[in-house]
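no rush on this but wanted to send it before i forget. theres a chain ive been looking at and ive put its sequence and its fold in token form underneath. please have a look and point out which stretches look like helix strand or loop to you. thanks a lot i owe you, the record is right below:
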Amino acid sequence: MQPNAASEDSRNVIDRYKGVSMEQIIADLDKDEQELQLAVENLTRDYNMGTIIRSANAFGVRRVHIIGRRQWNKRGAMMTDKYLHVQYHSSVDAFIQVIRQQEYAVIAADNVPHSTPLGQVMLPRRACLAFGSESDGLSTELLNQADAVVAIEQFGSTRSINVGVAAGIMLYEWVRQHRLPVVSTFEKS
């Protein structure tokens, strides 16, 4: 690293990566690849995809699958997609074939009638969390091929939460279950 390279680095990276090349950052992140992948079914070129990709990067996901349209609004990703391995699939069947070869469970996130509440689920360690578009959710084809369909419990009057927010919640829940130790509990004294 050059003397002032870190202080002049305006990229949205944590301090330890300031002044470090993108290739070196990717190689370092790949050393800690966890058994979590993410898929987004891109039916409508949803603007939320950038937010979902950015959250995937923040939670240490290394592989993201985009099913359907290759074109998506990358603005919300804030260049974080450049640090991930993004794989495009033309169809649900092509995605399922790849993910099954890797022996990952597909966990679809959608608030459809047959879904299981997230609080009642132990997410598999080797999981690929799948999200759909804001307006349409996931396709029937993907829902039918998923190993489980999970919905985030809600207690207000709205029918659904934003898909970008839902992805963040699901990603955190997987990390909480598989990467974060329970250190202590708090009780009111």
